[in-house]
Amino acid sequence: MTSTFGGIEAGGTKFVCAVGSGPQDLERTTFPTTTPEETIARAIAFFRERAPLRALGIASFGPVDLDPRSETYGYITSTPKAGWANTDISGMVGRALGVQVRLDTDVNAAALAESQWGSARGLDDVVYLTVGTGIGGGALAGGRLVHGLVHPEMGHMRVPRDRYADTYPGVCPYHGDCLEGLASGPAIEQRWGTRAENLPADHLAWRLEARYLAAGVVNLVCTLSPRRVIMGGGVMEQAHLFPLIREEVATALNGYVALPEIGPPALGKDTGVLGAIALAMVG
Amino acid sequence: MTSTFGGIEAGGTKFVCAVGSGPQDLERTTFPTTTPEETIARAIAFFRERAPLRALGIASFGPVDLDPRSETYGYITSTPKAGWANTDISGMVGRALGVQVRLDTDVNAAALAESQWGSARGLDDVVYLTVGTGIGGGALAGGRLVHGLVHPEMGHMRVPRDRYADTYPGVCPYHGDCLEGLASGPAIEQRWGTRAENLPADHLAWRLEARYLAAGVVNLVCTLSPRRVIMGGGVMEQAHLFPLIREEVATALNGYVALPEIGPPALGKDTGVLGAIALAMVG
Predict the structure, then answer these.
(1) H runs (alpha helix) in chain B
(2) Strands, DSSP E only, in A96-212?
(3) d(CA B84, CA B88)
């Protein structure tokens, strides 16, 4: 039997497909996300040339249906992305390749990859938070990915804010000033009138950003009690945010519970597709 | 082999001990919580008369150490309750009775009991929130109780507030205006100058209370994605809170994700000790 696994990082702007069994033997390709038919056909063609696969994982943008009892299990469901709503990505890929497929959210897969090979190796209780165009989060609790009724949507948590000190109304089209509405990349850009990377490290913007993100981390500590919170995504490339966030989390929790480690992912740009490979491997 | 399980609901003011295998055959006793030595000896005496037990569960006030790799596994740890800090409750009971003991938080055990016999029967993703003297929460994710680095401390989440509309600073000695600080029974009493049960159902207090509790529920939806949120405790005996909370949760989530059911526990005053029995049964 082959020992090669397949993985698809299905993103809103690009697909990354890879075969392998970890960071050491990854063979990958990348192409833009166009229509579901065209994009999924390209993925299938990549894996056909490398068949047989033992199993295949898909780490997808959401929302996705993760309930095995549902009729749309394995689908990308109500996404606003044109053409992609109600796409049976798992079925299309699985039937074409005759392989077992396991789908999960991109952020759940990233949490799994980091716990297998990255900064959370060996930890069973891990949160992966991405802070970029949006804010999303995935989690392992007791070694298992958190699903539930839908799946975590950590970016849409509500956090304290002082509307008088920060009058920016928030960018989330659903909630205005949820965490994503206040602290995503677009929120920083709209609030300050320039992209995040143009703001100097000593700008007031970063203290405010750290405070909002820390409130999100505090709420994750109070609900999931993770051992490590991994923070990735474009905004977190501003590495000076990490000490600010750690300081704000410690101040906010005020010694009440033990603090998790807070740090960046270790797998870099491969976190997503390695997450898909990890999904295939854990079956 | 006997098929009787033992359960201890170890509370800050009283202990409830029971043997049985569910709501149908519960034999119980209740006594006040005094010193650890005296209280635990009374529990041991109750179970000795009913030995042998197949296993014993303890649903305890916290914080407790749930990490099997820890030296203080099974202990009540840093509680402010006089005399009870660093009490090896699991070891004391287990050694005296020669029985396997499983300890968890009272709120995790309550979530488990409700999923076994109560309002969340058959559900794998459940949150149990108690709103009374404090606010605490437990959770089942994918059928397993959430532990992590410590265990959930849902009452200490941060939620949005308008400090200009509600100038009450909050009652939590650690965090001031965390969820417990704003919405526990003592917070209602201090803010309005009278106990919650004295406030009429159309008092402004309840809309504010529902809004804070709904923000907590929203954050639980965004992190754990439960199918049902069970809300118990003294404050939730004001049943008119439920429709207000459901309305506020729906408004806040604004159609972004599917809503969990929100309702009271079905097991009433036995939820705690049945949780302890359930801990023993799932092993």
Answers:
(1) 36-48, 89-97, 106-117, 179-183, 185-192, 204-224, 241-253, 271-282
(2) 101-105, 126-131, 135-141, 144-145
(3) 9
Cα A68 to its chain centre, rounded Å, is 21
C-beta atoms of B153 and A177 within 8 A? no
User: Who's near A26: CB < 8 A, 6+ residues apart?
Assistant: A18, A19, A20, A270, A273, A274, A277
Tokens of A157: 């948590």
Task: List Cβ neighbours of B38 (8 Å cut-off, separation of 6 or more).
Answer: none
Name the pTM for this structure.
0.96
Q: CA–CA separation, B256 vs A62, rounded Å?
A: 12
Q: Are B273 and B7 in contact (CB under 8 A)?
A: yes
Q: Which domains does chain A have, with CATH numbers?
A: 4-106+269-282 (3.30.420.40), 119-265 (3.30.420.40)
Across the interface, of B148, B154, B155, the residue whose CB is closest to A227 is B148
Which residues of chain B does A217 touch, with a Cβ-Cβ cutoff of 8 Å?
Answer: none
Q: State both tokens at B101.
A: 């003991």
pLDDT in tens, A187-239: 999 999 999 999 999 999 999 999 999 999 999 999 999 999 999 999 999 99
CA distance B247 to chain A (A): 15
A13: nearest Cα among A26, A28, A27, A31: A31
What letter would DSSP give residue B13? S
DSSP A64: B
> Cβ–Cβ of B148/A224 closer than 8 Å?
yes
**Reduced to 3 states, what is the DSSP secondary structure of residue A27?**
strand
Which of A125, A156, A223 is opposite residue B154, by nearest beta carbon? A223
Residue B139 has pLDDT above 70, yes or no: yes
Is residue B204 packed enough to be buried (19+ CB in 10 Å), middle (13-18) or exposed (0-12)?
A: exposed
Q: Which two tokens stand for residue A277?
A: 């490979």
Other C-beta atoms within 10 Å of B35: how many?
A: 12
Tens-digit pLDDT profile for residues A115-154 = 999 999 999 999 999 999 999 999 999 999 999 999 999 9
- pLDDT reported for residue A1: 52
Q: Which of B135, B256, B282 to mutate to test the interface with A (most CBs of A within 10 A)?
A: B256
Would you call B252 and A158 a contact, using CB atoms and an 8 Å cutoff?
yes
Non-local CB neighbours of A171 within 8 Å, separated by 6+ positions = A180, A181, A184, A186, A187, A190
